[in-house]
From TrEMBL:
GO cellular component labels: nucleus
Name of the molecule in the record: UDP-glucose 6-dehydrogenase
Gene3D superfamilies given in the database record: Cytochrome c1, transmembrane anchor, C-terminal (1.20.5.100), NAD(P)-binding Rossmann-like Domain (3.40.50.720)
This protein's pathway: Nucleotide-sugar biosynthesis; UDP-alpha-D-glucuronate biosynthesis; UDP-alpha-D-glucuronate from UDP-alpha-D-glucose: step 1/1
Positions with a binding annotation for NAD(+): D34, R39, T93, T133, E167, K281
Residues at the catalytic site: C278
GO MF terms, alphabetically ordered: NAD binding; UDP-glucose 6-dehydrogenase activity
Length: 498
């Protein structure tokens, strides 16, 4: 019976995962550890280090258990390792920026450091669960390292259990996973360890969604899933370029294709490209893996997915320039949205960054507003030269950011940017957990973390306060063209004639 679980790494995976584990398994004590003391302090406060809908609610619910609270955040990594039955590695694996595979391969330095610590301090058998995205074969490397550094004769069983949560819906994804993949060795002890982990997930996940396989398959499933999703978006974006050239409408094409149940309608939203910490690095890692296996045509195939994404971003910037009569020097362009997608403050590989840089290079003055990304983060990301910095300003409301603009560009699909008829109800989820007799809890989160998140922006007043001709560039195809044109502006979306 599992009594204690430690998640090493209190980031985008470890924090929400540890919280949901504690929430769904009241009898298991969960500790999330990290060597970053400031991050742990933040997890222990009311000001969490990240924004995820529903997260603060379930942390509050777990903390209300008072003496029975089974969730803690701590820097005492060694102590937590010693006390745990299962240790989950939720450690970042950034793309390498040096040496062999620079720009493509995943950097395993942080994982190796954590694994060494486990091997050195463990005083009993342990199950180590690899949650981070890793190149195939990493579980064997972890096994090898553990056995090499351990001072005792303990049994370390390493499982691959890739995490498929998306930022912005992490809590929902963890509570209702589409599948739980467990990769284990085909030995008795490997299968026993897999069963122990499966029993934890079965507390709230239907058993048919828990799939076991060998470790390589599990590791590759993670890269493959992200690569296939990224490829799908690159595919629809490549078609958007054709639509713009011939007068077809990408939304209609996506609808027509998506209604075929074999294709399905998810991840077919054309826009200015995918960002985030996962798609870019996982596609790059897959390309690197294929090249290192000598499978050059496989690597070339996936490389095009990456190129198409970059092409989509630069094509959009060029379109802004050409629509604005080939000159934006001295003009004011407002970018609405800086996060790489809605419901997150994460700006990693956000298309907005490249867009802002490109427009600054062309001589435009840039105003930026995002409901969740801090001013300091935006300045850091844009990394403007001294001269460009004088043309860059960050605002805390959309209305102020757009006042006097020649053009407004919607770069993130935040609900609040949507025109009234397209705007959906605020985030709300009724989460039913506990398939085995636990209480069913309702988590209500209407996304009211930020004052600007409630209510949509007032497009009529924004257009009213813009210079003429007033351009609205819809980089996420979330606006109603007719409505905006009726307000007197020129609407330019992605994947249809302007
Ligand atoms: C992605 C995967 O969706 C998760 O399943 C996976 O677990 C995660 O990576 C990970 O490896 O950790 P995430 O990066 O959080 O999740 O974001 P997505 O919602 O997949 O969006 C990625 C990018 O694609 C965003 O920039 C979004 O704006 C863009 N996108 C998404 C589109 O351009 N069109 C779409 O139809 C959907």
């Amino acid at each position: 019976m599992v009594q204690k679980i430690t998640c090493i790494g209190a980031g985008f995976v470890g924090g929400p995962l540890g919280t949901v584990l504690a929430f769904c398994c009241p009898e298991i004590s969960v500790t999330v550890v990290d060597k970053n003391a400031a991050r742990i302090e933040s997890w222990n406060s009311d000001d969490l280090p990240m924004y995820e809908p529903g997260l603060s609610d379930i942390i509050a619910q777990v903390r209300q258990r008072k003496d029975a609270c089974n969730l803690s955040f701590s820097c005492e990594i060694r102590k937590a390792i010693v006390e745990s039955d299962i240790i989950m590695l939720c450690i970042d694996t950034p793309t390498k920026n040096h040496g062999a595979g620079s720009g493509m391969a995943l950097d395993l330095a942080h994982i190796q450091e954590a694994v060494r610590t486990i091997g050195e301090v463990a005083t009993a058998d342990k199950i180590i669960v690899e949650k981070s995205t890793v190149p195939g074969g990493t579980t064997s490397i972890i096994q090898d390292l553990l056995e090499a550094v351990s001072t005792g004769t303990y049994n370390f069983e390493v499982l691959s259990n890739p995490e498929f949560l998306s930022e912005g819906s992490a809590v929902n994804d963890l509570l209702h996973p589409s599948r739980v993949i467990i990769g284990c060795q085909r030995t008795t002890s490997g299968q026993l360890a897999a069963e122990k982990l499966a029993a934890v997930y079965r507390r709230w996940t239907p058993h048919e969604l828990i799939i076991t396989m060998n470790q390589w398959s599990a590791e590759l499933s993670k890269l493959a899933s992200n690569a296939l999703l990224a490829q799908r978006i690159s595919s629809i974006n490549s078609l958007s370029a054709i639509c713009e050239a011939v007068g077809a409408d990408i939304n209609s094409v996506a609808e027509a294709c998506g209604t075929d149940p074999r294709i399905g309608n998810k991840m077919l939203q054309s826009g200015l490209g995918w960002g985030g910490s996962c798609f870019p690095k996982d596609v790059a890692a897959l390309i690197y893996l294929a090249r290192s296996l000598g499978l050059n045509s496989v690597a070339d195939y996936w490389a095009v997915v990456l190129e198409m994404n970059e092409d989509q971003q630069s094509r959009f910037a060029k379109r802004i320039l050409s629509c604005m009569h080939g000159c934006i020097n001295g003009k004011l362009i407002t970018i609405l949205g800086f996060a790489f997608k809605q419901n997150t403050s994460d700006t990693k590989n956000s298309p907005s960054k490249n867009l802002a840089r490109e427009l600054l290079r062309e001589g435009a003055t840039i105003h930026i507003y995002d409901p969740m990304v801090s001013e300091a983060q935006i300045y850091r990301d844009v990394n403007a030269s001294d001269e460009q910095s004088r043309r860059l300003r960050i605002f805390s409301t959309a209305g102020e950011a757009c006042a006097g603009a020649d053009a407004v560009v919607v770069a993130t699909e935040w609900d609040q940017f949507k025109t009234p008829d397209i705007c959906q109800a605020p985030y709300e989820t009724n989460v039913a957990v506990g398939t085995n007799g636990m209480h069913t809890k309702d988590i209500q989160n209407n996304g009211a973390h930020h004052e600007h998140e409630t209510g949509g922006i007032d497009w009529a007043s924004i257009v009213d306060n813009m210079y003429r001709p007033a351009f609205i560039f819809d980089g996420r195809n979330i606006l109603n063209a007719q409505y905006l044109e009726s307000l007197g502006c020129r609407y330019v979306g992605i994947g249809h004639l302007s």
